[in-house]
Design a protein that fits this description.
Pfam families: EGF. This protein is mostly beta strands. Among the domains are: about 1-30, Laminin (Ribbon); about 70-105, no CATH class. The protein has one helix at about 70-80; strands spanning about 5-10, 15, 20-25, 30, 45, 55, 60, 70, 90-95, 100-105. Strands 1-2 form a two-stranded antiparallel sheet. Strands 3-4 form a two-stranded antiparallel ribbon. The radius of gyration is 25 Å and the shape is rod-shaped. The chain starts with 5 loop residues before the first strand and ends in an 11-residue tail after the last strand.
């Protein structure tokens, strides 16, 4: 048994009890948690030491698997969907990491294009 696995005698054969992070009949394969694509919302999986993984989340997302939106981004999206006008005079609401900004049309300016 490789990689620290423990050999157990069985009738006429043997079995390997593998340590965490290895697998296979002889414990020779390192587990790759990234092969199942665990990161959501465009996150990038980073293989961890021996076992495990972490996700590098895109702007606006957080959590072990990038499963949660930043609260402010979530609120902005909900308000926009419900017809709340965050940007006035035809301005367009643009999500930024942890906040938003208004993209104003020509002739308007300010935080909310008023």
């Amino acid at each position: 048994c490789k990689n620290g696995g423990t050999c157990v005698n069985t009738m006429g054969s043997y079995k390997c009890n593998c340590v965490l992070g290895t697998e296979g009949n002889d414990c020779s394969r390192r587990m790759n948690k990234c092969s199942s694509y665990p990161c959501l919302n465009g996150g990038t999986c980073i293989k961890g030491f021996i076992f495990g993984y972490s996700c590098d989340c895109p702007p606006g997302y957080t959590g072990k698997q990038c499963q949660s939106e930043w609260m402010l981004d979530y609120i902005i999206r909900l308000l926009t969907q419900k017809g709340q006008i965050l940007c006035k005079n035809g301005g367009t609401c643009v999500n930024t990491p942890g906040s938003y900004k208004c993209s104003c049309i020509l002739g308007t300016e300010g935080d909310d294009c008023s």
